[in-house]
Design a protein that fits this description.
With 199 residues, the chain is mainly alpha-helical. It has a single domain, classed as Hypothetical protein af1432 (Orthogonal Bundle). The protein is 66% helix and 4% strand. It has a two-stranded antiparallel sheet with strand order 1-2. Helix 2 (33-48) packs antiparallel against helix 3 (54-62). The longest helix is centred in the middle third of the chain and has 26 residues, at 79-104. The protein is globular.
């Protein structure tokens, strides 16, 4: 790994995410929301896949880069609007990460690899994209699923089982094993539903 380039890119990603006007409090400290998310992504990647390539490590850190610049409210509040928002975000995150990598001196080949991963291209066929997706889903389960549940108190059990299954189906077998082996902290209130959904 080209350590100096890598550290420069991580610092650039973190500076970009530090501009997030949205805040989240964790362990009594306030963080820019997307900076905290990026740090959680790296922490999970180191637990789940410490052998990950440089490209995956960079993609993991940049996966939500400056997400607040393209709010969900700018798109129709229906399924087509949601899908358009998501695909727009994938390209935005990939392009933003690529631009910052170029600025610190990465070559076109590594930039293209990272953009493919961040853009979630070739999921299920590109092992690097799949590895990042695994980290995304593990972070969601450990850190964000419970809060998501709180925002959707109207969802019944059947709806929750569908949501959990969709998340589970995006993960690899190794990520399934990692989650079920107690390597992540499952949201206690949702454990019965999670176990029912993945049975």
């Amino acid at each position: 790994m080209s350590t100096s380039l890598y550290l420069a890119a991580i610092a650039a990603f973190d500076r970009a995410n530090s501009e997030d006007p949205n805040k989240e409090v964790f362990d009594g400290k306030e963080y820019p929301k997307e900076l905290l998310y990026a740090q959680r992504m790296t922490e999970m990647q180191e637990r789940f896949a410490p052998e990950a390539s440089e490209a995956v490590k960079l993609a993991v850190r940049a996966q939500h880069i400056q997400r607040w610049k393209i709010p969900r409210s700018d798109y129709a509040m229906d399924k087509p609007g949601y899908m358009l928002w998501r695909t727009t975000l994938y390209k935005f995150h990939a392009d933003t990460a690529g631009k910052l990598m170029q600025e610190v001196g990465y070559d076109d080949e590594m930039i293209a690899r990272v953009k493919t991963i961040v853009g979630k291209k070739d999921l299920k066929t590109n092992p690097e994209t799949q590895m990042m997706e695994d980290v995304v889903d593990l972070v969601f389960i450990e850190h964000y699923m419970l809060a998501f549940a709180g925002q959707h108190a109207d969802y019944d059990e059947a709806k929750w089982i569908v949501i959990i299954k969709k998340t589970w189906n995006k993960m690899s077998e190794s990520a399934h094993a990692f989650a079920l082996a107690g390597k992540i902290k499952l949201p206690e209130a949702l454990v019965p539903l999670i176990l029912k959904a993945v049975a």
